[in-house]
Amino acid sequence: MDHGKIRPVSDAIRSGIVVVDGTDVVRELLENSIDSGASYVTISVAFEHGCLDIEVVDNGSGIGPPDFAAMGRRHWTSKNLEESKFGFRGESLHAIMGLCTRTEIVSGREGCAWKMHYIGTTARENPRQCAFDGASGTLVHVFDVFGRLPVRKRQLAAEWREMTAKLSRTVFSVLVARPGVTVTLERNGVRVFSVTNQGGVAGIVGLLEELYGLRDAVEPIKASFEDVCVTGVLGPDVGKKCQFLFLNGRLLENRSLQRTISLQLGARSGLYVFDIRTPLEESDLLQSPSKKVFSPVLFDKIKAVLEEVARRWIDRDRAVRLQKKARPSLGLSRFFSPASDVVLDGPTIGRSHVVAQVESKFVLVRIDGVLVALDQHACDERVRVEALYRQWTASTHTVAVCIEITVDAGEIERFARFAAELSRWGIKYRQENGVVVVHEILALVADKDAVFLQTGVLQFLDDLASKRKRTCASSVDWWVATTQMPEMYHETIRSQACREAIRFGKTLDKDSQRRLVADLALCRDPLHCAHGRPTCVPLIRWLDK
């Protein structure tokens, strides 16, 4: 085997893993500048005649002559290993050189500067002194990115159209945890932006405004649990493009954590930027050449803190919106006595006497001298939802399905740990090549789409792991069993009860009214519909003369 011929091919393949596109070239060079202690970095990108050129200039500490001669060698680095924030694999510059046609590097330190010229990864000259504008710093100019991979180069025209947006995200990700650094981007000689992280919440808000044009109010967030601390901002929904997690300054991309936040925020899934700080773990630093973190060591603690942060924000946001909502009131007529001290329950409703139906919406009943209005839709919805709960908490009727769920290692472990709970609720699965296939599920939800079922199963596992749902118990009481039921079943049952319940506008005869009141009186929770709204409201005391 001719290793001399194989090595260039091997290097090119390896470089394609470290550097996927032009944005990765900028990110790697920008991270090197930050690690050199730079406070000002200028990025210039140019695309002309099918060739992409990239230049990054910084005012960092520069590189001295002894290290300069080794520039670009694979697994060689001049970084201070104790101070580097983005790692020290010694791969990025070698990978970039291996994918471009030509590279020039100029670096200055203590008033002296040296220059090197490379074709691919091969140096064409020894370091030579040259002029340099500044006391210290480094300039890296990469010519014809992917010029050594013609097939890959042909895709650059399409990537160029989206490069500004991608670079905005890259700059935000690098700067968000690094105050005091300014980055300027020029595209074909025209300045696109110049941003500085001022530090703290104000710094994050400034970056969001400059890079994404977001001027909506955001709320500062701070929470901690043991050795996990989370700071950042959270705001209204502006699209998922502004949802970021960072772990010790590195971009954290974990689908389970992102899903946890989305489930907590619900329909108001909003903007969030969370900087998570934990003790440094070697595993977190070495997971990817891109320096991203995918599976943090302290996953469970981080998830618990993020759940609490999202829950607090939703509770506060809901309270503010309720305070702002005006509720008109006509007051109480002087001809009637208030009935606000009346206590209603099932037995009390069972003693009621039907008076009349009003506007085909409400049933008026008299209970111990008090006139009470019953919402006919809410009352029938409560009767039906409890009947459905009795049916499906005892049902073992399952239907064959085929729902594939791509899972990570943590989710696979949860499937195994909570297999009994899944089986209790008719969820039967098998594991195939890193994919969980649900092949049976309770007939209640068998007609739902795959996305609903995938999300529902994973949410059930999350609820079990965080103890929001109880594990299997021997109780035969349907009321207790509902506390163990997957949330997707609750949602389906509530929706079905609402659809089938008596609607506003339907006229009920006296027998139907009495039957509705009698059925409501037998319910475990006769005072609320399936969605928590009141079924009945005391109006006035009925004073006989």
TrEMBL record:
It comes from the Eukaryota. Residues 354-508 form the MutL C-terminal dimerisation domain. It comes from Ogataea parapolymorpha (strain ATCC 26012 / BCRC 20466 / JCM 22074 / NRRL Y-7560 / DL-1) (Yeast). Pfam families: HATPase_c_3, MutL_C. One of its GO terms (molecular function) is ATP binding. InterPro entries: HATPase_C_sf, MutL/Mlh/Pms-like, MutL_C, MutL_C_dimsub, MutL_C_regsub, MutL_C_sf. One of its GO terms (cellular component) is mismatch repair complex. GO terms for biological process: mismatch repair. This is DNA mismatch repair protein mutL. Belongs to the DNA mismatch repair MutL/HexB family.
